[in-house]
Amino acid sequence: MRIPLLDLKAQYQTIKKDIDDVLIKIAESQHFILGPEVEKLEKNICEYLNCKHAVGVSSGTDALLIALMAIGIKPGDEVILPTYSFFATAGVVARMNAFPVFTDIESVTFNIKPEDIEKKITSKTKAIIPVHLYGQSAEMREINEIARKYDLKVIEDGAQAIGAQYRDGRNVGNLGDIGCFSFFPSKNLGCFGDGGMVTTNNDILYEKIKILRVHGGKPKYFHKIIGGNFRLDAIQAAVLNVKLPHLNEWSEKRRQNAYLYNKLFIDANLAKETGVTEFNEGNKLLLPKAVYENEKSLINHHIYNQYVIRVEQRDELRKHLTENEIGTEIYYPVPFHRQECFAYLNCRDEDYTNSNFAAEKSIALPIYPELTEQQIEFVVCKIKEFIIDS
Ligand SMILES: *Cc1c(COP(=O)(O)O)cnc(C)c1O
Known about the structure:
The protein is of the alpha/beta class and 390 residues long. The chain has two domains: 8-245, Type I PLP-dependent aspartate aminotransferase-like (Major domain) (Aspartate Aminotransferase, domain 2, 3-Layer(aba) Sandwich), CATH 3.40.640.10; 247-389, Aspartate Aminotransferase, domain 1 (Alpha-Beta Complex), CATH 3.90.1150. It has helices at 8-29, 36-49, 60-70, 88-95, 114-119, 140-150, 203-213, 234-243, 247-267, 314-323, 353-361, 373-389; strands at residues 53-57, 78-82, 99-103, 125-128, 153-157, 178-182, 196-200, 285-286, 307-311, 362-365. The strands form two sheets. A seven-stranded mixed beta sheet has the order 1-7-6-5-4-2-3, with helices on both faces. A three-stranded antiparallel beta sheet has the order 8-9-10. Strand 2 (78-82), helix 4 (88-95) and strand 3 form a beta-alpha-beta unit. The chain is globular, with a radius of gyration of 21 Å. The protein binds pyridoxal-5'-phosphate (PLP). Pyridoxal-5'-phosphate (PLP) binds at residues 59-61, 85-86, 88-89, 131, 157, 159-160, 182, 184, 194, 196. Residues 59-61, 85-86, 88-89, 131, 157, 159-160, 182, 184, 194, 196 line the site of pyridoxal-5'-phosphate (PLP).
C-alpha cells in the first residue's frame, strides 16, 4: 500500500468544481495582483481568526520579514526565537542584519521554552518570535508577560498553525503584536503556489504593513520608507477563498487521524501515553501531546499540521518505511544553533538538549485529512514490525 506523506490531489478532487470555476473567472478577468479576491480573503481571514486586520502577502517567509520591518528592527538588534523551527524563522532576522538569539524548546510541545527567553534578553533585544510548531500554540501567556516586562514586540510564526487556539480559546495570530501565516501547499490551508498573511490588531502597524507590501510607496511612487514586493496574487487568494470554509473540517480530520495513531500505538504496546519525553521499556515511541486538550472543550487545540513521533532508531525506521512506500519527513534535522550559516553566533550546543534530541529522534508520519483508517493501520503495523525486529 503506497502512502505518501501528503496527497494534495485527494483534496483537490473534493473541491475541484469550485476551484476550477474561480480559476477560469480569474483568467477571464485578467486581474492578477491584489484586487478584490485578495481583499475578500483578508476579510474572510479576519472573520475566521477574529482579528482586526489581515494583509495578504507573497509567502510565510515574507510575512515574517514584513513584520520585522514593520516593528522597525534595525541592524544589530537581537530577536529571540526557538532554535528548532523551519529555517525562515531565523533567516528573516539575519536578513535584517539583526542577530537571531536561539532558545531551546520544551520537550513535550516542541515549542519555545519560556524560561529560556528571559535568560537571553539583553539591552539589544527588540522582539520574540514564538513558533506554533506542528500546529499547536506556544505558551503565549508567559511569553507575552516577559515581552511586557521588557518592552519587546511579539511576532507569532503561525505558518503551521492557522486556526489553532491557545488555552483561552483565542486563535494564534491574534495573541501577539503581529501574526504570520503561510499558505505553502503543505500547510493546513494551502494555495496553488506561494502565499502568506500578516495579521494584527494594531491600526498603526496595519497601515505600515500595507505600505511596506508595495515597496513602501504611499502614495504610489512617493517613499517615506523602503519596503518590497510582498504582494499576494489573485489566483492564490481565490483558491484560498474556496478552501477556507473547509479548513475546520480538514483540521478535525487530522486530529481524528492523530487520535487513531495514538490509540493504535498504545494498543500495540509501543507507548503508554502521549507526551512522554524519555524512552523506556514501555515507551519505545514518544507520541505528540495536545497540551491544551483538557483545558476547555476547544475545537482547535491542536491542528496537527504535522504528526511527529520520536523513536530511538529513527533513520533505520525511516528507511524501513520508505521501503514499504510510506512517506515520512524529518522536521528538522539541523537546529539553527548547528547550522553552518549561524556559526558566527558561537552558540553552545549543550544549551539546546531538547532541540538536539528532537533533531536526532523525530520523524513525521502521514497525517493529511484524506487518509483512511486502513492506511493508518498499515503505517502502525509497519512501525511495530520494525520495532519488534530491531
Ligand atoms: C512554512 C513555514 C514558514 C515559511 O513559509 P513559506 O510560505 O514557505 O515562506 C515559516 N515558518 C514556519 C514555522 C513554517 O513552517
